[in-house]
Design brief:
The chain is of the alpha+beta class and 409 residues long. It is built from 20 helices and eleven strands. It is elongated and about 80 Å long.
Length: 409
């Protein structure tokens, strides 16, 4: 029985990056031996055990065989006869197919260390093409390590292209897809994730609404980068640079989907793209079963981001409607995330990344002005029910008029 550290822990140590999660593989052992040593079994599909003291996961070395469609379409075989090399060959990338024993000795049968030095994301074997989830995983790794100069090997990109064309991507569950997408969006360079998916044809299968934005022009006066798809990637890049949370990054990715519906005869203008895009945003939200907070913010940003850009020009009544739409009185954080998404949108334009965005502080001030209107005086005046709501609205409108006048002075 031999135990090896495998996968990401080995990869990141060699890259000089902090190691957080450690995966262990056990060679030459049976389920009965693991149980006898006090390991606790978990997972129904293949033998994984929890260490009796550390609680870390230890998996028996195993082989796998394609037996159906999608990520789950595999039959696993684990036995004491399965070698370390046989276990490693079923992994996705060479840089994830290295192992290390308790003396720090490296086992690297598929030249992962060489690919680390060459900054290449390369598949281990042709069996890579049997698992559609690997398309998303490789694109995510590309986003994670782009800052270190990593790129996807051409032959691996070709396999990803074949997978994208095979129909296998459609067998992925919403939960597995969202797990990879959400993790990728939180990497340092999430735009690379989208770009790699597009390069291998996966984007038009998984999120055709985003793929449709590329090649769609916008007015150069407002968008020096012109292309709507390029703009979306730039907005996502700004969200990452400014350390925005997942909700904001998801909203930034989907905010301009309506531009993909504009007839060519109307280019480069996109009249009412905010409202036209809502059904597309809703469809993408539902396709991946995105968490509720991500879904809600994406729809609100899609509908109101141009209001955010025009904040300084909005009439007090329009400003009040905007605040009401976000329920800023009970959910102030959601409005703050909207403001941040609008700012990322404004910065996601070629040459304008550093331009100030005074609309942000103006909107924050408007929300504060509306929130400071007290309910108690109105109750003391006898207002209740729907009349109280109307009175509160009138007082908030007065407060916003005063705020706008003060800001304009």
């Amino acid at each position: 029985m031999q135990i090896y550290k495998v996968g990401g822990a080995v990869r990141d140590r060699l890259l000089g990056k902090p190691v957080t999660d450690i995966d262990w593989v056990v060679v030459g052992a049976s389920t009965e031996e693991m149980l006898a040593k006090g390991y606790r079994p978990v997972g129904a599909d293949f033998p994984v055990f929890l260490h009796p003291k550390s609680g870390e996961e230890y998996a028996l070395a195993r082989t796998e065989r394609k037996s159906g469609r999608g990520y789950g379409g595999f039959t696993f075989h684990a036995s004491p006869e399965v070698t370390l090399e046989e276990d490693l060959i079923r992994r996705d990338l060479t840089i994830n197919a290295m192992a290390e024993d308790d003396h720090g000795r490296l086992t690297d049968p598929y030249h992962g260390q060489r690919d680390l030095e060459a900054r290449l994301l390369r598949h281990v074997s042709p069996a890579f093409a049997e698992d559609p989830l690997r398309v998303l995983r490789v694109a995510r790794f590309a986003a994670r390590y782009a800052g270190l100069g990593f790129t996807v090997a051409p032959e691996t990109l070709e396999l990803m292209r074949q997978l994208s064309e095979s129909g296998e991507l459609e067998a992925l569950t919403a939960e597995r897809s969202w797990k990879e997408i959400s993790r990728a969006l939180m990497e340092d360079q999430p735009r690379v994730f989208i770009q790699v998916l597009r390069d291998c044809g996966a984007l038009k299968v998984l999120i055709p609404e985003i793929d449709a934005l590329f090649g769609v022009p916008q007015p150069e006066a407002h968008h020096p980068e012109i292309d709507s798809g390029v703009h979306t990637l730039s907005v996502l890049e700004q969200a990452a640079l400014h350390k925005q949370p997942l909700t904001v990054r998801w909203a930034c990715l989907l905010h301009d989907l309506g531009k993909g519906l504009t007839p060519e005869s109307q280019w480069p203008r996109h009249i009412a793209h905010e409202h036209k895009g809502l059904r597309l945003i809703k469809a993408v939200n539902e396709r991946f079963k995105a968490p509720r907070d991500c879904q809600e913010l994406a729809l609100l940003v899609g509908e109101y981001h141009t209001h955010g850009h025009r904040a300084l020009e909005l009439k007090p009544s329009t400003l009040l409607e905007l605040l009401q739409s976000f329920d800023v009185y009970r959910r102030p954080q959601r409005f703050e995330e909207f403001i941040n998404a609008c700012e990322m949108d404004a910065r996601g334009r070629k040459g304008l990344e550093q331009r100030s965005y005074p609309q942000a502080d103006y909107l924050r001030g408007a929300a504060t002005a509306a929130r400071t209107v007290a309910v108690q005086p109105l109750l003391e005046q006898g207002f209740k029910g729907p009349e109280l709501g109307e009175a509160l609205k009138r007082e908030r409108l007065k407060a916003l008029k005063a705020y706008k006048e003060a800001a304009s002075a």
